Amino acid sequence: MGILQLIDKAINAALLAGMKIMEVYSSTDFHVQVKEDQTPVTLADQNAHDQILKTLESTQLPILSEEGIHLSYSERKNWELYWLVDPLDGTKEFIKRNDEFTVNIALIQKNEPIAGVIYAPVTGELYVGISGIGAFKLCNPSEDCTFQIMQLSGIKLPEKLKSDRFVVLVSRSHMNPETEVYIDKLRKKHESIEIIRMGSSLKICKIAEGNADVYPKIGKTMEWDTAAGHAIVKAVGKNIFLPDLVTELTYNKEDLQNPHFIVL
């Protein structure tokens, strides 16, 4: 399969997973459990994971999913091309019913995200980016949506010009003193700053849209949290860097936890 065929599969997988998530979201019991790392997981996480695996199976590429089996580094270190998946990014936001959660599917080649799909099931916002081609947003896509449809009917990103204020995105559920210190430094550089709290990978999407200037993450995230968004921001000429603002975030590391990073 070529990259366009692969990304069409990922779009389909994300939309179907979104339907599975909404089935649980409209129910009265999310079947919330706590994993070994003390993070929550719901029936929606697992159902979305199962749907994505089923849909992407025909691509015959390895799949590394938050809710799947995490193979050892020795087993995955030589992967040339693989899927990196977060079936439900923003589980805490899902449980709080604040609608800020997404399906994240990234295509990784040689430790670098080359394509990404992010779908927000509640709002129906679909974001897709491919390195060297561009990124697009489409609201309420049809079930048979493809990247070509995104190009024809969607909005090419970035969508909007930045406001007069310097807009900083921060996590809704994971704010910490270190991030406050970073923001204080920004206040000394910029006359007017607006802070927006938001859940899940939607923060990275806002950077790609041109609706925000920076998203600092000084705290724990995993590779599947960022990969799809990383591909999308790269497709619009932006990036995710380590705090030195030079070194790009990479993937398929021995430790799947990300270091601190800045999206801009």
Question: What keyword list fits this structure?
Answer:
seven-stranded mixed beta sheet, 264 residues, Fructose-1,6-Bisphosphatase, Chain A, domain 1, D-Maltodextrin-Binding Protein, domain 2
Topology record:
Blueprint lengths: L2 H23 L7 E2 L5 E2 L1 H14 L6 E3 L7 H4 L4 E9 L1 H6 L5 E8 L2 E9 L4 E6 L3 E6 L7 H7 L1 E2 L9 E6 L5 H13 L3 E6 L3 H8 L5 E3 L5 H13 L4 E2 L19 E3 L1
Parallel strand pairs: 3-4, 10-11
Antiparallel strand pairs: 1-2, 4-5, 5-6, 6-7, 7-8, 8-9, 12-14, 13-14
Overview of the molecule:
The protein is of the alpha+beta class. It has 2 domains: 154 residues, 2-Layer Sandwich (Fructose-1,6-Bisphosphatase, Chain A, domain 1), CATH 3.30.540.10; 98 residues, D-Maltodextrin-Binding Protein, domain 2 (3-Layer(aba) Sandwich), CATH 3.40.190.80. 33% of the residues lie in helices and 25% in strands. The chain has 8 helices and 14 strands. It has a 7-stranded mixed β-sheet with strand order 3-4-5-6-7-8-9, with helices on both faces. Strands 12-14-13 form a 3-stranded antiparallel β-sheet. A hairpin with a 3-residue loop joins β7 and β8. The chain is globular.
Mean pLDDT across all residues, rounded?
96
What structural category characterises the helix and strand content?
alpha+beta
Write down the overall geometry. globular
Task: Give the second-level CATH assignment, the architecture of the largest domain.
Answer: 2-Layer Sandwich
What's the alpha carbon Rg, rounded to whole Å? 17 Å
Q: Give the neighbour order of strands across the main sheet.
A: 3-4-5-6-7-8-9
